[in-house]
Amino acid sequence: MEVSGGGGFLLLLFVVVLMPRSATVLLADAARRTLTDVSSPPAPSPAADAPILPGVVVSPPTAVKIPTEGDNHYQKQVLVAVILSLVAVIVMAVSATYAWSFWRKAREALDSKDMKLQNRSNGHMLLPVLGKLNSNKMSSKEVIAMMDFSVLETATDKFSEKNILGKGGFGCVYRACLDGNVVAAVKKLNCCRQEVEKEFENELDFLGKIRHPNVISVLGYCSHEDTRLVIYELMKNGSLETQLHGSSHGSALSWHTRLKIALDAARGLEHLHEHCNPIIIHRDIKSSNILLDSVYNAKISDFGLATYGGNHNRDDINPSGTVGYVAPEYLLDGQLTEKSDVYSFGVVLLELLLGRKPVERVGEPHCESFVSWAMPQITDRTKLPQIIDPVIQNTMDLRHLYQVAAVAVLCVQPEPSYRPLIADVLHSLVPLVPVELGGTLRVVEQPRSAG
Questions:
Q1: Looking at the predicted structure, is the pLDDT value of residue 138 above 50?
Q2: Which residues are catalytic?
């Protein structure tokens, strides 16, 4: 095999580096001998150079030396060393090839696993939509896909009134049918005011980071001229407010279903208060922001007013929220803590018990909060069974009713320090919810009738 000068030198260097030490010494010695034989010309023979004289007998040239047994043994050692070195090189080359192939396959498997986890965390509904996403545009807050306005316009039939799921202060929520029969909810905001743009950014910021079964999942967003859109997973049973105060008037919500909804909402809120770092204060817990899926699993939504926990005062943050749900210390003094969310949750719990709106008009222009109206009666065990929602009257164990009412009363205490942590509320509700609905209660007999 012929090897060019540069290539031959590199091959020789590679072999010398990789071969065993003894083989290296043998090869070096062999190379030295070979170079000496080639570069040194034979010494001139005096007999050959001398003139031939008459009568002088010239001795014949000395015969070539025949290799001895020792020389043959030395050559065999050199040959064995070369062969071993070549084998070592081949083995290392094959090993390197296999190692590289294994690393590449492991890397591909890891990337595939990460992609599956990301898709799972964003919800299975997102997968068929990926073809319509603009991959060059991503939210600066988190990895939330930006969708084209034309896709959403088509999916909502140009934001037709027949697809409206609900209306808010700054826009409407539409039902959208995306490619692949994926149904989603699209909140459309008209950014005519600066606070709307701020709420839009806030929503993406928080929902892009939170992953919890009882917090709504965001699938994408869109910015188009003065319009901002957020795409969520669709909750088929709408909001708790719609179920309680809509046309059905709570008829679909049994006693245990209501407790399950309260437990789910408490779990979502507990995640914000206990497991997020820094903690997150929602600031707008209310029945319209608790959404229900097809089997009445509840999820907290609308993080437009959310903020991180810490020492807040009126100079840091403007009091915001919905009348009837806002804690008194926050409304009057701007004092904001996680206990403000606990107060709002207590109002929702009373709403589930009484089936009434938190604020009711009692005459122009006066409104009355049911917290002040109901407190004296809720704490009276003889009156409580008579004021709860007629839909659920006489359908529960009265001991459980008293326990839930006691939790609600603690949550709406005027003094924040008297209110429990949401984790304590959660632990109080778990034993009252049947096992099949996510609690620990084992129903072994029919509920006793009131009275």
A1: no
A2: 284
